[in-house]
Amino acid sequence: MTPLVMVHGFMGGAAQWDGQIAALAATSDVIALDLPGFGANNHLAPITTISGFADWVIAELQQRGVTRFHLLGHSMGGMIAQEIARKVPSQIGQLVLYATGAIGVLPGRFETIAQSKARAKTDGPKATARRIAATWFGDGAAAPAYPACAAIAERATAAAIAGGLDAMQSWSGETALPALPHDTLIIWGDRDRTYQWAQIALLWDNIPNSQLSVLPGCAHAAHLEKPALFNMVLRDHLAIR
């Protein structure tokens, strides 16, 4: 069975995927990773480039003996997934790019990367985690899944927050999109305030073998807002090929 590797986004963690792991357990092996500086790996030195994150994921999978896998990346993790797909294309079966884009400066985001950097320095990591995690949900901090999601985000270190913002701001994968050879599913919530439609359209228009699934009434954390719908879309994509 080809495993599905799940890469979380900025201030995320492997624990955010618990609902997907449970839903897919009968049909897929799932490997959910904590990136350095985040989640259970918040003790590791932070990484400051998307390429560096991709190299870390590849090395981690090699260490585990995983040489063939499907790959899902969420948000910043979707940028990392694009880099992994370029670095080791023959190792990847299907690619899922979820609530992400190819332009790291995040045009149209609820606030600029520079604003996030400045506020993170002023507010500190925990307040930053709670504030930004609220933007991932259509109902903000009132969303049922927000408390658990914010608790995971709070594990991010100040250095990891700064490093992640630097990594996104300095990265662009736009010109490389047409060379991605994989069957690619693009998932997006139509209320996402982090990645606007233009970013999603850029992926869909330029990745040759891509499909688009728009989840209605969802923001940046559709897998937590409407997990049954998200899991159905994901299972369908992995099963039909």
TrEMBL record:
Any one GO MF annotation of this record: hydrolase activity
Pfam families: Abhydrolase_1
Every AB hydrolase-1 domain range: 3-227
Gene3D superfamilies documented for this protein: alpha/beta hydrolase (3.40.50.1820)
Keywords associated with the record: Hydrolase
Descriptive protein name: Alpha/beta fold hydrolase
Organism of provenance: Yoonia rhodophyticola
